[in-house]
Design brief:
By secondary structure, this protein is an all-alpha fold. It has one helix spanning about 10-29.
Length: about 30
């Protein structure tokens, strides 16, 4: 288990993309 790089960055990026997707979906309706 090599965890040199914290998974926080990946998590935040995924959350950012999810927020953008939700925003786009709300705009589309």
């Amino acid at each position: 288990n090599n965890e040199d790089r914290p998974s926080k960055g990946y998590l935040y990026e995924a959350m950012d993309r999810a927020k953008e997707a939700i925003r786009d979906n709300l705009k589309g309706k």
